[in-house]
Specification:
heterodimer; A: mainly alpha; 72% helix; B: Ubiquitin-like (UB roll); 9 helices; 7 strands
Chain lengths: 148, 258
């Protein structure tokens, strides 16, 4: 009698609930999930940064094309590079490309299989540091070639 | 004695349509973890509070909850870290899992996914060995880190892909698959690959990296998945370039489990 009472009463409290099938609560994931946590936002920015890597590549391709077309075209392109629009595109792109590089170098030790030297795993910090060191050296060489 | 307010998400399937927050004031003792505070509430303040726990020492993996929005083992999270200047701590059930009651989540979906990746030693012919397989310390080292997983599902609560794609196998299951793939005694990597080299397997992972950050046993599931991706790509390339070479040895007996 009591069990029957419970069965008939339960729907009044919560219609979907039945005695043998408890209602689970499932929360919907918000569309703005990537704004709710620092780690998520960093991840999304890292992914978006690849768009700006592409922007840099496109700008460089246009520059090479201008170089191919002769001194006048190159002069024209360089003039465009000095405009506020080009400058802001390049500054924003540079920030994202630097962010892209730093974040990917930091996760590089996880993304490659463990490197073993004399039976010991190379420490993660060393792998990341050597990436940063290589970046610095290459940047230094390019800076020297351009500025000398 | 210092006090701290615990804001606990409560949900009763009999009464509630959705969870609500109830607050409890508990004393802060130096040696208390969040789980001790929950036990205090259950003993002294409100016996109807439901949550899972067992070992109190970070081995059983039962007491995972969201503590101030972070997936944590409550047996390893000290209350004093949150008790500064009359602060409040919010305790919620692990994110992305259905909630059965209060802080108790439904994990059978995870258990099914875990079984799917065949987390056990697979041998080619399925015969029982006559003696134990020998393994050097270096060979043990190849997979030891991944074997530390306690199935606490904190990594699932940290992974946005788990929340967005219900078919994604998830960090712990893939890390445990890798634990057996990397074991020198195992011969089942091709069979696991057939399950995991899919958009719902390793390719579902976008390398957010939160799983590794929250893992209480330092398993590094994100690393396991990325290394798996690299191996899968190399194997695919090999089968493409060297079609006569070693292909996926997908035949053999279903020797164990299933």
């Amino acid at each position: 009698m009591r069990a029957r009472d419970m069965k008939t009463q339960a729907p009044k409290i919560a219609p979907q609930y039945t005695l043998y099938h408890p209602r689970w609560y499932r929360e919907r994931v918000s569309t703005y999930w990537w704004l709710q946590q620092k780690g998520y936002l960093k991840f999304v920015l890292r992914e978006i940064s690849s768009v700006f890597v592409a922007v840099f590549v496109v700008v460089t391709l246009f520059q090479l094309n201008a170089l191919r077309q002769g001194p006048d075209a190159y002069e024209h392109f360089q003039h465009w590079l000095r405009t506020p629009v080009a400058l802001s595109i390049n500054i924003i792109s540079l920030c994202f490309v630097v962010f892209h590089t730093i974040t990917w170098f930091n996760v590089a030790p996880q993304a490659i299989p463990p490197i073993k030297l004399r039976g010991r795993k190379l420490p993660a910090a060393l792998i990341a540091t050597s990436n940063f060191a290589a970046w610095l050296v290459v940047s230094g060489v390019i800076a020297w070639l351009v500025l000398r | 004695m210092d006090k701290i307010v615990l804001e606990i998400e409560r949900y009763s399937p009999e009464k509630d349509r959705k969870p609500h927050i109830e607050t409890y004031e508990v004393p802060v003792r130096k040696e208390w973890v969040v789980l001790d505070a929950l036990n205090y509430i259950k003993d002294k303040l409100d016996g109807s509070l439901s949550y899972r726990w067992s070992c109190r020492m970070g081995i059983c993996g039962s007491c995972g909850m969201m503590v101030n929005g972070e997936p944590k083992l409550t047996c390893a999270t000290f209350l004093t870290d949150y008790a500064r200047g009359g602060s409040r701590v919010r305790i919620q059930p692990l994110r992305y899992f259905p909630v059965i009651r209060d802080l108790v989540t439904e994990i059978s979906d995870f258990m099914m996914k875990l079984k799917k990746v065949k987390p056990w030693l697979i041998r080619e012919n399925g015969a029982q060995p006559e003696r134990e397989f020998l393994q050097t310390p270096e060979q043990l080292d190849d997979y030891k880190q991944f074997s530390m997983c306690i199935n606490c599902t904190l990594c699932y609560a940290a992974c946005p892909v788990v929340g967005l794609d219900k078919d994604f196998v998830g960090p712990a299951a893939i890390a445990l698959a890798q634990r057996y793939n990397k074991d020198s005694r195992d011969q089942g990597s091709a069979r696991r690959g057939a399950i995991l080299e899919h958009p719902e397997g390793i390719w579902g992972c976008t390398f957010v990296g939160e799983c590794t950050r929250v893992c209480p046993k330092h398993v590094d599931p994100a690393g396991a998945v990325q290394q798996y991706k690299l191996e899968a790509s190399v194997n695919w390339l090999k089968s493409f370039v060297l079609p006569w070479g070693q292909k996926h040895e997908s035949k053999g007996h279903e020797d164990t489990g299933t």
